[in-house]
Amino acid sequence: MNANSAAPPARPQFVIGIDYGTLSGRAVVVRAGDGEELGAAVHEYTHGVIESVLPGSDVRLGPNWALQSPTDWLDVLRNAVPKALAVSGVDPASVIGIGTDFTACTVLPTLADGTPLCELADYAQRPHAWPKLWKHHAAQPQADIVNQVAEERGETWLARYGGRISSEWEFAKGLQLLQEDPELYARTDRWIEAADWIIWQLTGTESRNVCTAGYKGIRTEAGYPSRDYLSALDPAFADFTDKLAGPLLALGAPAGRLSPQAAAWTGLPEGIAVAAGNVDAHVTAAAADATRPGQMVAIMGTSTCHVMSSDQLAEVPGMCGVVAGGIVDGLWGYEAGQSAVGDIFGWFVDNCVPPAYVDEAGRRGIGVHDYLAQLAAEQPVGAHGLIALDWHNGNRSVLVDHNLSAVLVGQTLATRPEDGYRALIEGTAFGTRRIIEAFEDNGVPVEEFVVAGGLLKNQLLMQIYSDVIRRPISVVGSDQGPALGSAIHAAVAAGTYPDVPAAAASMGRRTEAVYRPDPARADRYDLLYAEYRELHDWFAGEAYGGSGVLHRLHALKNEVIG
Fold first, then answer.
1. Hey, how many other C-beta atoms are within 10 angstroms of the C-beta on 228?
2. Which of 396, 376, 386, 337 is nearest to 459 (CA)?
3. How many Å apart are CA 100 and CA 469, to the nearest integer?
4. Containing H/E element for 76?
5. What is the 3-state secondary structure (H, E, C) of 444-473?
6. Buried b (16+ CB within 10 A) or exposed e, 296-334
7. How far apart are CA 116 and CA 159, in angstroms?
8. Do 190 and 112 touch, CB atoms closer than 8 A?
9. How many helices, marked H, and strands, marked E, lie in the chain?
10. Residue-wise over 33-58: b if at least 16 C-beta within 10 A, else e?
């Protein structure tokens, strides 16, 4: 090359992010240099959430069951990824990495080679052979045992999880498998998060990621709970952590290379980098460039997950856990959450709105949610006279009790649908305020509140949240937050960036203080929040100085319906 010649311009490189949600999976094609999203596609799960009958059978499920099908997850690779590539116009040869995220704890039993037990003819009609979705709450009795024995033994790891282990997590669901289908438990070689199982399918190599292992698998720096503890739960449970085998990977680390089989599914080049598995909420912090201490990210959709990094280690009652490197390396990652948010509003519209409202929304050319929001926005704070406890799917934080149910106080014959709709929005906002207070009361300051997820589109909701929590709200700059976050981790795994914060700074984006609290409304909400707190503690049960009525009602319902 002579002195006057110039080096050819570098060819742009691209990464794929795949977000596995509750009802669908989506893929997004992202330019690694700046995070520009060039194409996206969604694949709806054929089986959706399996809640009543096992596919292809007449086997009925009990109360609070929620399962999924692994074939739906593989279909996302076969359908959404090629469609996203086609929409983007990107040459697959320019793709250098792929990253994924999943709902959690969504967990399944497999053979040693990763074959799901539900795909074996002998087990297909046994409910426990199928993956248990995050909102499978039928393991609450086992969660009670997990917590009771840990408290009696003084297990030091319990405080890391806010003092309560959830029925949604690996240990409660695994103990339910053992106690209700011991033969199937014995056949289970691996008890693995879907977040790690999908990586196994992409690479052909088994691995575990620090996020799901830490938050959902009760793994601290000292390892998993001891064999003695597991034996105290049930002597046959002593080998449980043997089923959690596999190398533990940091977030953003390469888990392996895309296998020939996965390359054929996706249309991507064989051998590109595949990032370690991750969780939909935690990966979104990178998409919002919110990986620094004190930035709380609330991923608001069907449920809400609150994640935040900190340089402070504290034990916060009712949290879902604090994990070293749980969001980014070098910081403590905290998680909290609400088990239902968008699901509550959807339930209300489906079940509590009269036909006249639906007809009027249609005449106006808008959806029922938008019509209710318009009517509710006209109300002064407190005008409806209602307080709602947002426990339609139990309480994740700070009570960690999925046997709780919702409460709506203050209804009269004058109560209108828009009143109830607004009260439910306010109730979820009060739940978030309770979580923020728990953090700050225990020495973990929240310096910025960032929102991602589908509920960003509801401006009334966002303004109510800002008024209730008395804080500005920043918003993520992408409609595909988790998928973008997964793409950011793929860029790190491919070596484009040295770490996740550096990649997030280039590829992530958010707009600061989009919503600001109105002082007058915030003052009124302080009064309502005080009432919420009183009801919160009373209906939480005897442990909080209140009534156990919700637990008694739950037990009676399960007794009647079996």
1. 9
2. 376
3. 32
4. helix 70-88
5. CCCCEEEEECHHHHCHHHHHHHHHHHCCCE
6. bbbbbbbbbbbbbbbeeeeebbbbbbbbebbbbbebbbb
7. 33
8. yes
9. 18, 19
10. eebebbbbbbbebebebbeeebeeee
H or E segment at 339?
A: none
Residue 449, both tokens: 């509140």
CB-based contact 432:395 (threshold 8 Å)? no
Nearest CA to 434 out of 559, 544, 547 is that of: 544
What is the C-alpha to C-alpha distance for residues 311 and 315, in angstroms, rounded to an integer? 13
Structure tokens at 338: 């609400």
Q: Residue 11: its pLDDT value, please?
A: 79
For the record, the structure tokens of 208 come out as 């575990």
Domains and their CATH numbers in the chain:
14-275 (3.30.420.40), 289-476+518-562 (3.30.420.40)
Q: What DSSP assignment string belongs to 182-231? A: HHHHHH-SEEEEHHHHHHHHHHS---EEHHHHHHTS--BTTBSPPHHHHH
Residue 193 φ then ψ, to 5°: -65, 140
Helix axes 194-203, 70-88, angle to 10 degrees: 60
Q: Is 505 left (phi over 0), alpha (psi -120 to 50) or beta?
A: alpha
What is residue 6's predicted lDDT score, i.e. its pLDDT? 52
Q: Which of helix, strand or coil describes residue 107?
A: strand
Model-level pTM greater than 0.90?
Answer: yes
Which among 503, 507, 510, 508 has a CA at the least distance from the CA of 449? 510
Query: 104 by DSSP, 3-state: which?
Result: coil
The helix/strand/coil state of 43 is strand
Average pLDDT over every residue of 250-278: 98
Task: For residue 379, give the amino acid letter.
Answer: Q
Residue 486's nearest CA partner among 104, 19, 95, 24 is 19
Distance CA 510, CA 499 (A): 19
Given this model, what pLDDT does residue 51 score?
Answer: 97
10 secondary structure, DSSP code: P
Give the pLDDT of residue 7: 53
Give the integer Cα–Cα distance in Å for 543 and 399.
10
The answer for residues whose C-beta is within 8 angstroms of residue 414's C-beta and 6 or more apart is: none
Helix (H), strand (E) at residue 388: strand 387-389
DSSP letters for 145-196: HHHHHHHHHT-GGGGGGTT---TTSHHHHHHHHHHH-HHHHHH-SEEEEHHH
pLDDT for res 560: 84
Q: How far is Cα 400 from Cα 166, in angstroms, rounded to an integer?
A: 6
CA distance 5 to 14: 27
* Res 257 pLDDT > 50: yes
Q: Is the separation of the CB atoms in 267 and 341 below 8 Å?
A: no
